[in-house]
Structures are given as structure tokens and as C-alpha cells.
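Self-study notes.
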Amino acid sequence: MKKYLFIIVALCLFTLTVVGQQRVIAECTVTYNIVADSTVDKETKETLEKTTKTVYIKGNTCRTNLLNSAFSQAIIYEKLSGTATILREIGSNKFITKLDKTQWIEKHKQFEGMQITKLNEVKNILGYPCKKIIMQLKDSSIYQIYYATSIVPSVKEFEFQFKEVPGFVLEYEIDEVGAKKIQYIATKINLNPVANTIFAIPTVGYRILTEK
């Protein structure tokens, strides 16, 4: 009996230690700067680098915004249902697309079977020690990712391809086949409460757009 009690206590202590090493962030706002490769033409580079990316996380819901003077896009993702709503604004035109779980997975099928390589490289981002991993897709596209090891978002799917990353992604570079390199770097992480209105889905003023 004492032997079993010792094992149970040991397992409990081990669990507490592991959980204590990584904090789940269930509410935050993260802002990313976008940097384009030097080979990108000047106009495209300027447009990309004037675009802001903001991620809002609250419980089991997240919203990812891309915004510049010409357009805006917001993706609102519900973790429990696996569904997503995409809002796009181009000039005065507003579009809404709703995806069920199957459609959402199909939209990201290029990430199926990707290979993940862990590296020993470490850097500090916003005060968080971050480890590096490389993800290679089936089409040979490469993602270089730095993730904070001490924190993890409650909705890891704020980017579908990050759902298997064991921490909070604070920097990543996309090197797609036939495309230019684009880098996203977190410049601020705010742990204050996020308003529920951020995740409200509009019911009027948007035209329904079907995802192809």
C-alpha cells in the first residue's frame, strides 16, 4: 500500500512540475510586425510592411486581424466547434465567409504531413526565451519558427499550422516555393482582458462570399 501511495504522490508532483513550467495564456493581445524579403519589389514590400497583424485570444476563441490602408481581414476561430468566420473589407466592399470544421481543415490541407525539426537555437523575444523549430511542408515550403517555451496559448490554432507547436509562437518566417520570404515578429504581448465585442460576428452589411 505504501508503495502505491508513493507512486501516486510522485506522479502528482511530476504533473504539477510540468504544468508549472508552462503557463497557459487564455486571454491576450499580440501585435506582430511584418518584414518582407529584400528581393520583393518596392511597392509590395511597402504595402506588406505597412500591414499590421494582431491576434486576440480569449478562452476558446481567437481573432486574427490583418490591416492596412487598402484592405482588412479578420479570422474568428472557435476552438470547441472547429469553425471559423472570415471578414474581409476592400474599400467600401465587405464580405463574410463562414467555414464549418470540415471546410476549415480542407482550407489548410497543405499542412498535412508536414515535417517538424527541433533545433538547439534559442533567442529572447519580449522577455521570453524562445526555441526554434523548422516545419517543412509537402510542397517543400519552409516555416522557421521561434516559440516561447514558458507560455502556450489556449487556442494554439490561431494559425492552423501552429497547432502542434509546444508553446506560443512569437516569430516566424515563411519561405514558400515560388514566393518571397515574409517574416512576422511579435513586438508586443498584452495580457489584459480582451473585450467580448472583439469576437462579435456581424449580421448585416456584409455580402456572403463562398470559399473556393
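Second protein, same conventions, sequence then structure:
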Amino acid sequence: MTDTATTENGKRPAGLDKAVVVGGGLWWYQGQRSRALALPWSFDDVTRDFGDDLYERMLFDSRVAACDILLRAAILEEGIALAPAVADADADGYDQAKELLAFVEPQMEDLETALDDVLWDMLACMALGNRVAEIEYWPFDASPQPGRAVLRSLTVKPRESTAFVVDPYMRLLGFVGREQGRPLVSTGALIDPATNANFIPREKFAVTTFRPKNNDPRGTSDLRPAYNPWWLKMQTWQEFLKYLAQFASPSIVGKTAKGATVVTDPATGLTINAVDALLDRLIAFQNGTAMAFPAEYEIQLLFSQGEGAAFFRAFTLYNNEITMAITTQALAMAEGDKGTRAQASVHQDALGTIVHQAKRSTCRMVRRDVLRNLVRYNYGDKLAPLTPLVSLGETEAEDIAKLIAAFAQLQASGYLDPSQYAGVDRQLNLPPRAAAPEQQPPPGGGQQNGGTTG
């Protein structure tokens, strides 16, 4: 890279527009840069060693599932809201941005599977590393809007039905997928996208990748730090079951009559040891409902003196470690009842940070993978920058009242400009306003349908 190219600002090294360093250790010896790799489904040490469905199995645990459901519900609580890419009525592109919003918004509401359900499934990427949904359009001869590409469905696919295809620099090119009547997907192998019948271009899919490492589109799992406490919990369940089987019900202790050493078995007429004979009768009693014993026998019930407190403490420890690993804090779940209000607030803020990041990532996926292509197919590449904005709400519910009061004070002092109302509405998780900005009331006060403040 010693050559130079002249620009307006002088000279710069040539080759800045090309990738040089490969995206993983397996590429350096391949020597076939024109080919691509279908990545295997396992993406970390435990999925490689214990099965690529490990994290799906972990989600059957009640605490793991509770943390996962908590995060997904918090992310999708407000639902998807769309807004024009240009909010200022006097700015260039405002009318086109409004037109694109009017074209896109009804399609997102008319998907065959509700968008909220699709996004709930896609957010499983937090546990599984990634989720992939195939984008399908109505056939042109059956389109609800003749001559236009109209969204029909976003269908989330099983993990084993697709495999990521990357170039030597770990850039996602597309997928190989299981198609009806074609061979199964071959993962971990080099392919040629130009000739492979199973290769499907990237733009055919919406992809959520959770916290990718080294640009790996398979992502990482938030369950990986929880694997050790989960595994210990699974082992402890087995021991706890043994404890319950042995000590939850009383044991029966019998004593033979004083001096009794042998008795005659009434069934066989044979002489047997008196202790063995009593044991047989006690076992029969344990498996039955009633038994009669000679008066000289002594029968007692032996109860366990412990309540399995060690097991309960162990399960509490494992659950706290699982919660900490997934949500980075413990007070979001039941074990935080001894914490102070200040501690709970700090922990809620920590959880809110994760939720906000996931919201932005989800909104970026919807806008980039779904809406942008929908705009491109119908209006051309030039209008792609005006793709409607996507929001899942930016503020926690408990903070909205404070923000409304603060914005009202700013409005009363004359600080807020009408051009800022769109941003304020997004901050308050409100739908975009229909009327012109100058006709709007101040945020959090006055009439809500285009009226003025009193």
C-alpha cells in the first residue's frame, strides 16, 4: 500500500477502498478469495461442544425464560411507530417523505403475521445470537396496489433452515437455505454464490444479530455468561429430587418382638429370620395402604429433621447468577426485595440501558432491511434516504410525567421552536402530529387535536 492517489486535499494511500485483512483464522489458508463460506450454526465454545441448540434448551428454564421475556416485553412495550424522515414542513423533501410514510405504513399493519409477533420472534436473537426472517412480496398480478411491490409477509425461519454466507472479510453476502425439492444446506463449506442453487441474496431477508463479535453475523448470546449457573442448577435438580424421594415422606422403622429370631413364613412354611420377615412386611406396607402386625411388633415413623435449606440456598444463588448474567442486575427479579429504593432505581437504569440499545438495533433492522428496500423497489434509489423513521419509544413510562412537565416549562418560556415538536413527540412516545407544526399545542399541555393552549 505504498501507491498514492491525488485528491483535492492532497494525497492519500491507495487501496483504502479495499478490504485486506481476512475476517477469521480459517481464511488465511483457503487461497480462494473469489469464493464464500457458509458458516456453521454453532457460533461459540458451548454451542460447538454441546450442540447448536443449547441456548434453545436453556430457554426452558424458568429463570432464563423470565429474564428473556422481561427484556423482549420491555423492548416492544410501546410498539412500532413510523415517522417521516423530514419533519420540517419547510425543508426539502418534506412532501416526498410524507408520501413515503403514507405508502409504507398501511403495509406494515397488513402483514400476514402481525408485526409485533414477528418482532417478538426476531428478538430471540438475544438468546440465540441471530434470527432471520424471509421477506415476501405480493405477486405483481395479485398486488393490492397494481404495478407496485407490496409487502406480504415477514416469516421468521428456523435456525437449521438457513446458513449465513460470508466473504473472506466476514461481510454478509446472503444465505444458503433449504428449499423444497433441493438438497439440504451444507454448512461450514466453501461455496460459489454465482453457481450454488441454494444461495439467496441478502436483501431477501431481515436479519437481527445480537452483539456481533469480529463482525460475525451469527452474533453472540446473552445466555453465554449464564451457562455455568444454569448447568449447576440442572445438576442440583437431580440431587434435590433424590432428597425429596428419600426424606419428603417419613421412613418406617420396625422392631421385632424381644427374643424373636426366626419365624415361619405362612406362605411357604419355611423358617426365616424375624428381621427379614418384618422388613418384607414393611416394604409391602410402603407400597400398599394397610397392613396388620402382631401386637409384640413395634412400628415407628421416622421423619427428616431438615427442610432442604441447602438446596433452596443453592437455587437462589443460581437464579441470581442467571439474572445477573442476562440483565446485568438482580433487582429486576424477586430476589431484590431487600434492596433500597435507590438501589432499585440504579438497577432499573442499568436494565433500561440494555433495552434502549436493543430498541435502536431493532428499529435499524426494520428501516434498513424492510422499509428501505420497499422504497427502493417502488421509488428508486434516490429516495432511499427518505425512508420513514422507525421508533419503539425512547423513554421509560415512569419518566414520561417528568418530561411532560419539563417540556411544558420550556414551551412556556418560549425556548421550544415548532420545528422541535417532532423530536419532542418521539421522546414522549407519542404518534407524529398530523397538522402543521405552527398549529400544534405545546408538548404535554393544551388540546391534543391541533388546538391551542388555554
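Instructor comment on the second fold: The chain is about 35% helix and 15% strand.
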